[in-house]
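Please review this one:
***
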Amino acid sequence: MAFACQVSQEIGGEFVVVVPTIKDGVLWNSEEVFEDSIKVLNKVADQVAPYGLKVAFEPIGSQNCCVRSLDEAYAIVEAVNRKNVGLVIDAFNLYLYNQWKDIDVLDKIPLEKIFIYHIDDADDLPIEILDHCHRLFPGNGVIDLGKISKALKDRGFAGVCSLELFNPGYWMLSPEHVFQIGAKKSRKYL
């Protein structure tokens, strides 16, 4: 963790993103997940504090993740109750969870607890097939990024927005080209 903190500090980073446990074939006990997540986030928060960094907790919408929903992730962050622990709102992950059927969940989260917004889109595939390799540039898929972005903007969110793509088709493009496309496609959602 010290190395990650040092690198983050050197490049002007503000956050360390932490994801919950992901493991196939496990039936998660919600009480154990809640308690363990609090313990781990407190430990990580202690480790990053000397570097002036914050911990951004990101629920992962995949079936095999122990913390999938924004409600659950926020309950954990709220229980941790530290200024340097907040959330990542990942459009793709929360689409995987429930296709953003309850966008009003954003209204329940204090603005100061929303640290990062990952603006990413999804292929139009059945949810059972959809995986992280099906992430697309903003506006190229089925996620209503306009609605999500508007909900965040209307609340006054002016934090970090990032593009998170794990699509192997994009790996063949030069990093500069991906950056140019990503910047152009993301602008309308900022």
